[in-house]
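Internal tracking record. Fields below are filled automatically when a chain is submitted to the structure queue. Please do not edit lines marked as system-generated. If the sequence contains nonstandard residues, flag them in the REMARKS field before resubmitting.
Queue: standard
Priority: normal
Entity type: single polypeptide chain
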Amino acid sequence: MPAHHRPALLLLFIPLACFDPPELDEALPPLADLGPVDTWAPLDESGPPAGDDPSAGDGGPDSDGASDTDADPDPHTGPDPALEQLRLTEVLVDPKGADGGPDSPEFIEITNSGALPAKLDGLTVTATSWPSLDAGKLGLNGVELQPDDLLVIRRWTTKVDPALTTLEISNGVVWTGFLHSSGLRNSDGSVALGSGATVIDQLDYGVDPTPTAGSSMCRLDQPELGWESCTPSPGLRDSHGDPIDDPTEPMRIPPGAVQIVEVLANPPGPASSEKPYEYVEIINISENEVELSGCRIGDAPQPDAPGVDPLDHVAGDGGCESPTCLAPGARAIIVGQGYLGETGGALVLATDDTTIADGGLTNTEPVVLWDSRGVAISSYRLWPDPAGEPLPSDEQPLHRIDPSAEDAPTSWISAPATPGT
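SYSTEM-GENERATED OUTPUT FOLLOWS
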């Protein structure tokens, strides 16, 4: 280049040096720090080494650039030992009615299976297709779940009253909920409890267990046995999977508290006119009042057999406040509608039709009394051979010799009728 052109060239470059470089778009993520990785190495299809989390802090866009080896553990992401006691006990993914309706929420039930209270501040819930939930979103900050107590989380649609989600704590059950348009997957999905980055407990469903419309999946008492289909009972199962009392339902009747003590299946006279005189007498042999509301009577070993009858108060007094309550030592007789026989001043409970059980009693059929939960609380003639002796062939009732005796042929004798006495 000729010498006389050089100054002009310098003047050309000087203005260019004074311009500021263009600013980078701050919305763009920083470049990932690849570290010592050999990007030309063959692909390893075996995945990351065991124990590595491929989504954890690897210097990528969602990390702070620090490696796992030079960063102190974050105390807020570690598992809470108290929360590790929590276990899923019941999940309802497809309730009867519209999923998430005012009377048909989806729910998960959780119990504290440990010996110490569990503060719920660090709890997280991940369930397909619920949103990601934490204690703050569920109103659980500062709430402790005592040993054997239950936490029930319910999901309603966004169209229901938000007041349904209000936190309530009653009788050892913590109730909470949320509104969201997406519900749990009905045929397959997952529900997981977390503490920090740790999964505490998880249920994956679809094949085993398989959800059933209108039924819950309940954890069995022995964890190794897995889960089973069950009647929805949020807040009514303890840490062993057993039902507990619902304050809105009749109290359970303890085994042996109420016994059938007299059965008149073959009243005097022709068979065509004996049905209005049939009766079953029961007695409360416990030291506590028992509530008979919801009890049913049948003539088969199954609570859902044809003709199983609910019982309603007709007359008399069982010795306590409720019309269907039976005080210690008190008796009740169970009859069909239109009963014409004696009552002896006992509490009288009638079936919902003109006979007891399926068309009335017979000489050889059993009689079973069921509580409100379908549990047999007493029986008559539930023998290996119910057609065997003793039979009420002499038109007298059979009496249980001792109210506490087992239901066996040797426990019953024929004697004159004494209804209600």
